[in-house]
Amino acid sequence: MKKIILPFIFSFMTITGAFSQERYIDEVFANFTVDSSIVYSTNLSVLAASQGFPYVPTGSNGIPALAFDLYEPAGDTIAERPLIIMLHTGTFAPIIYNGNPTGMRDDFATSRICQSYAKRGYAVANMEYRLGWNPALPTQAERAASLMKAVYRAIQDTKSAVRYFRKDYANGNQWGIDTSRIILCGQGSGGWVALGYATVDKLAEIQLPKFLDLSNPTNPVALIDTAVIGDWDGIGGLYNMESNLGYSNDIHMVCSMGGGIGDLSWLEAGDVPMCAVHCPTDPVAVYTTGDVAIASIGVVTTDISGSYDVIQKANILGNNTVFDPVNAGSDTYTLAAQAASTVAQGMMDFGGTTIGAPVDNVFPYITGNPYEASPWDFWDSTTTVYIALALGLPASQGTQAHVTNIAQNPDMSLPKSMAYMDSTLGYFCRRIVRATNLDGQSGIDELTVIEAGLKIYPNPANQNVTILSENGTINSIKMYSTAGKLVKEETNLSSNQVNLNNLNLLEGFYLCSIEVNGQMFTKRLVIR
After folding, report:
1. What is the separation of C-alpha 499 from the centre of its chain, rounded to a whole number of angstroms?
2. Rg, Å, the chain Cα set
3. Using one digit for the tens of pLDDT, what is the confidence trace for 189-236?
4. Cα separation, 12 vs 426, whole angstroms
5. 4: buried, middle or exposed (CB in 10 Å: 19+, 13-18, 0-12)?
6. CA-based nearest residue to 432, from 66, 39, 28, 22
7. 321 partner at 20 to 30 Å CA-CA among 32, 65, 119, 447?
8. Could you tell me which of 18, 108, 123 has the C-alpha nearest to residue 432?
9. Cα 496 from Cα 466, distance rounded (Å)
10. What digits encode the pLDDT tens for the residues 307-340?
11. Beta 177-187 vs 81-87: how paired, if at all?
């Protein structure tokens, strides 16, 4: 599988250079600027709880401030730009303490993703959120409660940050942000925050039976007590500091890199559009639905859903219909995602679930490494040791963080990291543009009619197929193998029916990119 997918992914950087550049999709700016460490809020952290200080204000006593770094395209002349809020990874614990060489907004991949978004024309807030939970608590219920509260606090912080930008907009808009276009992009645990932000909006959703401590069945206790920690907007609570009130929390899209949600029932019709990249081999955030477990302590919480199940349900609910024109197109990244989804079908994810039929709007990263979770990551082993020492930890702890993570990502390298980041943003940005109407297509009714009338038959086929367009004129046809190789091309067409004979193709799955009335659509074809 690695031989099928990786060459295609690594070819993206050279392939895309041959096409015209488009703002918000391609890197059209050569440089970027950064305004660093802007404090957006203050709240109570549990990060110092092990030292006997359970609730310490952020930005004091060694607790990181709730701040962001604002990346902008250098030399931009547009008055208002869409805002991407970037949420870093780290399993809700500080770097090295979490057993990883990553876990802060200054991580290589996180900062490079922000730079690349900025070069595409976006304003990007690389945001810090509260950390802290205890994976060593004695019972599964206590561990689950501790982790859930960490995710919950991060959601509260992110909502405060969104309100901060709307407050700034109302008071001069110093960074030139279009607050009608706010996108959350979460990486790893940041993906959990982004998806939770978009879906948790009712008390009942955080009081499902699996979110209760049932050790005393006659008096079950909610793992999250809003009277103590506040609600999902960061309002109320004994140990919660409200901030940036009076402004909207609304966002317009979620992009998740290996994230998940606490329960599929959180997803409802009308939630914002969402898309994802995710490794089916992810050992923590399973690709479908399963338990979150840490090897050293066992199960933390149960029945958590990853990108495949989340995006599939979002599609079914109609929340992602806005992406239909993109999925019908023939850009390299969409074709690669469709090909990878076909390869993933029938694989078993880390939780033991067999992956089903391809799902639009999720790009499975199949690297060939059995426990891969974040192929975009890159770190330096020496720097990892220096970070451990700077935190007052022994050098061996930094070394162990490197060794543990390199076992999951044994071919980790700068070119690999850059290629996967390019693939991620290439996949996300086309959907950001569509979801926020940056392409000016306010409606998709006409495209839906054309798509409905586009037929390819017989399917499965032998070596002869017919392509029929009932509601438009076929302009061109391109056929791709699952490895992304162009195997057949017909151009300068002007007909509603095209017969392709004697294709001489090997048995297998192919993607047909069909241009009708100047719009691109993709159909799947099986050759037997």
Report:
1. 40
2. 24
3. 999 999 999 999 999 998 888 788 777 777 888 888 999 999 999 999
4. 9
5. middle
6. 22
7. 119
8. 123
9. 11
10. 999 999 999 999 999 999 999 888 999 999 999 9
11. parallel
User: What tokens appear for 16 in the block?
Assistant: 């895309």
> Which one-letter amino acid corresponds to residue 77?
T
In the structure encoding, which two tokens stand for residue 11, read together? 């070819």
Question: Any idea how long the chain is?
Answer: 528
CB 376 within 8 A of CB 409: no
Please spell the DSSP secondary structure of 453-479, one letter per residue. TEEEESSSBSS-EEEEETTS-EEEEEE
Residue tagged 């609570």 (tokens): 237
- Torsion sign across C-alpha atoms 155, 160, 164, 166: positive
pLDDT at 281 over 90: yes
Hey, what are 148's tokens? 């859930």
Taking the complete model, does pTM exceed 0.85, yes or no? no
Return the structure tokens found at 127.
């945001």
Q: Where are any strands of DSSP class E within 258-356?
A: 260-261, 274-278, 289-294, 298-306
* Cβ atoms within 10 Å of 151's Cβ, excluding its own: 23
Single-letter code of the amino acid located at 236: G
Domains of the chain, earliest start first: 2-378+413-435 (3.40.50.1820), 445-527 (2.60.40.3080)
Region 93-108: what's the mean pLDDT? Answer: 95
- Please measure the distance between the N-terminal and C-terminal CA atoms of the chain and give it in whole angstroms: 21
